[in-house]
Amino acid sequence: MPASDPVLEPSRKGDPCIIVIFGASGDLTKRKLIPALYNLAKEKLLPDNFAVVGYARREIGTEKFRERMRADTAEYAGSQLDPEVWNWLESRLYYQRGDLQTAGDFADLSKTLAELEDRHKTGGNVLFYLATAPDLFGPVVRGLEGLGLTSESDKRWRRAIVEKPFGHDLASARDLNRELRKSLDEKQIYRIDHYLGKETVQNLLVFRFSNGIFEPIWNRRYVDHVQITVAETLGVEGRGGYYDHSGALRDMVPNHIFQLISLVAMEPPISFEADAVRDEQAKVLRALSPMTPEQVLQNTVRGQYGAGTSAGRQLSPYRAEANVNPQSNTETFVAMKLDIDNWRWKGVPFYLRVGKALPKRVSEITVTFRKPPFSLFRHTPIDNLEPNQLVINVQPDEGIKLTFGAKRPGPTMSIGPVGMRFSYEDYFGRAPATGYERLLYDALLGDQTLFQRADMVEWGWTVVSPVQDVWHALTARDFPNYSAGTWGPKAAHELLARDGRAWRKLD
Ligand code: BG6
Which residues are catalytic? Predict the structure, then answer.
């Protein structure tokens, strides 16, 4: 049994340590990280010998930082603040002013760490959380190494969580991996993807590999195709500066979407040990065949929203958003058909679509099974039989639904589609969570299963880069090509219609 598997040891506390958050004045810290630590404290999963240092440029001091974090946690933790739990955490929260590229400031941090280690008896373990601009990941890690802060010994560990985006293409992702590995060993690097913090995404592994009835039909013989939709109703919401350089493809596909594909398509791992799981995920990513330029033109669709109404809100065109180029060629919608070239999935298309300003916020994976070979029922031609579908709702209504045909009551034979549904909330209630609890907890335990390994990131970019190249070379002449509040450009529907298929209706 891997000593670090929290599934097998549900109540084990994280190791004694200090967490240093670089970029502590940002949104992530206040909305996710500190509230997630609070939720972990509430579950008694944090060690007593524990401290958190928020590190950022502003001069705010520990008292003010604590005050702000209290207010933010009350807002974002998902439940009313329990004063006892908060006080426990607050007494371990510190703030250190500093620049990320100034050696003197890092030297001060090093002194602070030594003091806190002594005060909280954290045993020398430190988790560095890089919630900074991506171009600072390398310099920060190098700065830490320069002060000896990344070196481990038998007695103490040093780990770094690296936020996304991890590179902006294959070459930059490789460079970043190389740069990080000059200062850190792969086992010290935790590349975070917040999709793996979602319960339903983690449940994919449990659903597939702890039940006997699905795996025998989880292959090309029984599955017709797989659809993945990640739809958002919001536009870019003040993130124009970042988004206009990124676009939907880079923002969502090589990371979140490929995590979902790899968990749906992977072979059973030999154990739940981190590298056993990640080996199988990496194999799926390697089997996603990179497209030729012709295939890119045929199998991918890009879109950009114009004005419209989504979820009751009037949205301006993407090109009118703050910090977006008024002639922007950046896509806010992507649809794609991907093939997985391996024994299990050959010939089973994986269709994905992701976009902003769509009609509904919903993320789901649908596995559509093949139709029965012929229809026994009079007047029910095989074309009219609905295929069975297994729908995994990732958010917002987490659950799983299986659809099948049933006889409509009455003297005549007619078939209607019906469904069996499992809803997380009905069975387990709604636990307050930010989605970062499990990931932070695993990092404290040294379990890398839910973090991306260097090769996984690089394989993801290998698939996405040829698409980027073609899109970059050819200006999208028809942008904007969908109105906010619709399901993307017409071409996204044609992508499936060409194969005699359609996107699952989500309205
Ligand atoms: C982020 C992207 O990684 O994921 C955002 O940068 C996107 O553009 C977000 O909105 C979606 O996350 P979630 O958890 O709301 O589905």
Answer: 256
Contact 437 CB / ligand 1 (< 6 Å): no
Q: Given the structure tokens 């124009």, which residue do they identify?
A: 240
Residue with CA closest to ligand 1 atom 9:
252
Residue with tokens 């601009």: 133
The protein residue with its alpha carbon nearest to ligand 1, atom 15, reads: 232
Residues 399 and 422: their CA atoms lie apart, in Å, by 5
How far is the centre of ligand 1, averaged over its atoms, from the C-alpha of 11 (Å)?
A: 30
Element holding 493 (H helix, E strand): helix 490-497
Q: Is the CB of 232 under 6 A from ligand 1?
A: yes
Nearest residue to 174 (alpha-carbon basis) of 491, 376, 460, 500:
460
> Sign of torsion, CA 92 95 98 100?
positive
| Residues 436-454 pLDDT 10s | 999 999 999 999 999 999 9
CA 15 to ligand 1 center in whole angstroms: 30
Q: What is the pLDDT of residues 253-308, one digit of tens each?
A: 999 999 999 999 999 999 999 999 999 999 999 999 899 999 999 999 999 999 99
Ligand 1 geometric centre to CA of 231 (Å): 10
Angle value at C-alpha 133, between 23 and 178, nearest 5 degrees: 115
Q: Is 251 in the pocket of ligand 1 (CB under 6 A)?
A: yes
d(CA 184, CA 142): 9
Work out which ligand 1 atom sits closest to the CA atom of 164.
3
**CA separation, residue 116 to residues 52, 54, 112, 381 (Å):** 9, 13, 6, 73
Query: How many beta carbons lie within 10 A of that of residue 506, not counting itself?
Result: 14
Stated pTM of the model: 0.94
Using alpha carbons only, what angle is made at residue 433 by residues 431 and 435, rounded to the nearest 5 degrees? 130
- Identify which has the larger pLDDT, 6 or 66: 66
